[in-house]
Design goal:
Layout lengths: L20 H42 L1 E8 L2 E3 L2 E5 L4 E7 L5 E5 L4 E5 L4 E6 L5 E7 L7 E7 L5 E2 L5 E3 L1
Parallel strand pairs: 1-4, 3-9
Antiparallel strand pairs: 1-2, 4-7, 5-6, 5-8, 8-9, 10-11
C-alpha cells in the first residue's frame, strides 16, 4: 500500500520549459537567483561575523597598558605620554578611602572609581595633541594629561612639555 502526501511532493522544473522566450528567460533568472542569493548571503554574513571577531580580539590585545594610581586625591603619574594612533588600556587604581570620578572632556570619558578599587577605560587611538583629565570630586589636586606625540619615546622637561624625542 502506498500513501502519498500531497504537501510533501516537490515539483521538478527542467531546463526545457515549454514557454515563450521571455517567460523562459525570467524563469531561469528566478531559479538562478533563488538558488544563489541565500548561499551568497550566508557566506557574506559568516565572513563579516568572523572578521568582526578577529578585529575585536586584535584590538583588545593591541592596546598598550597604562596604570594610573590615585593616592591622596592626586593622579600618579599625572602625565602620560603615548605615540599617536595608539590605543591604551587605562587601569585606574584608587588607593584612597574615598571615591573619585575620572573625568575628561578631551577624551570623552568619565568613570567613578570607588574607594580602594580599580577601574578600566579604553582610550584612543588618538591623534597628536594634549588631552586633559581630572578628578571631579577633587578638581584642584587630581589633575593630569595625556600627551600624544609623533615619537615612540619622549623626554619631558620640568613643565611637562616635550623636550626631545
Amino acid at each position: 500500500m502506498t500513501i502519498t502526501l500531497s504537501f510533501l511532493k516537490t515539483k521538478t522544473v527542467s531546463n526545457k520549459v515549454a514557454c515563450n522566450g521571455a517567460n523562459q528567460d525570467s524563469a531561469k533568472r528566478t531559479r538562478t537567483s533563488n538558488n544563489k542569493v541565500p548561499t551568497n548571503k550566508r557566506l557574506k554574513q559568516t565572513f563579516v561575523f568572523l572578521v568582526s571577531i578577529y578585529l575585536s580580539i586584535d584590538t583588545a590585545f593591541a592596546a598598550k597598558l597604562v596604570t594610573l594610581n590615585l593616592k591622596n586625591n592626586m593622579f600618579e603619574p599625572s602625565i602620560i605620554t603615548i605615540s599617536k594612533n595608539t590605543k591604551i588600556k587605562l587601569v585606574i587604581i584608587n588607593h584612597d578611602d574615598s571615591p573619585e570620578e575620572f573625568d575628561s572632556f578631551d577624551l570623552n570619558r568619565e568613570k567613578v572609581i570607588f574607594a580602594n578599587s580599580t577601574a578600566t577605560l579604553f582610550v584612543g587611538p588618538l591623534p597628536k595633541g594634549t588631552y586633559y583629565f581630572f578628578g571631579e570630586y577633587h578638581p584642584d589636586t587630581a589633575v593630569g594629561k595625556v600627551i600624544v606625540t609623533d615619537c615612540e619615546t619622549t623626554q619631558l622637561d620640568s613643565s611637562g612639555e616635550i623636550e626631545k624625542c
